[in-house]
Amino acid sequence: MVNWIGVAAINLAIAVTLGAFGAHGLKRIASTQQLEWWHTATLYLFIHALGLLVVGLLLRLNYATQTTAWLLQIGVIIFAGSLYAMTLGAPRWFGAVTPIGGVLMIAGWVWLAVTAFRVSN
Question: pLDDT (tens digit, 9 = 90+) per residue, 10-51?
Fold first, then answer.
């Protein structure tokens, strides 16, 4: 079993690092659009890392499943990763994969809801 609390902590450390890099290291070399992509990626990484931290706790209490955690983790990697990549020079068409990450994150939260309703019955 994956230690999702540990994974969430790593995600949070990465989010802080990438947020700081975006705020200080990219200002002179990135366009306004690229900085917006970076900001959005970092915001979603932070939010979903915190969510994954909660899911990790819920897993230990048997109120969530590994499926929720995997959907959130893979989703945020695809979503934020594609935005980071475009900011750093990947072709703009690379953004076509960004919504796939968003759908996976949504699916993770919906799966958590389904699991929570099943546990409460």
Answer: 999 999 999 999 999 998 899 999 999 999 999 999 999 999
pTM across the whole model:
0.94
Query: H/E/C letters for each residue in 42-102?
Result: HHHHHHHHHHHHHHHHHHHCCCCCHHHHHHHHHHHHHHHHHHHHHHCCCCHHHHHHHHHHH
Mean residue pLDDT across the chain = 95
From its phi and psi, is residue 89 left (phi > 0), alpha (psi between -120 and 50) or beta?
A: left
Where is 39: in which H helix or E strand?
helix 32-60
82, 94 contact by CB (below 8 A): yes
Spatial separation of the C-alpha atoms in residues 81 and 108, rounded to whole Å: 18
pLDDT at 47: 98
Q: Which two tokens stand for residue 46?
A: 């932070």
pLDDT of residue 119: 81
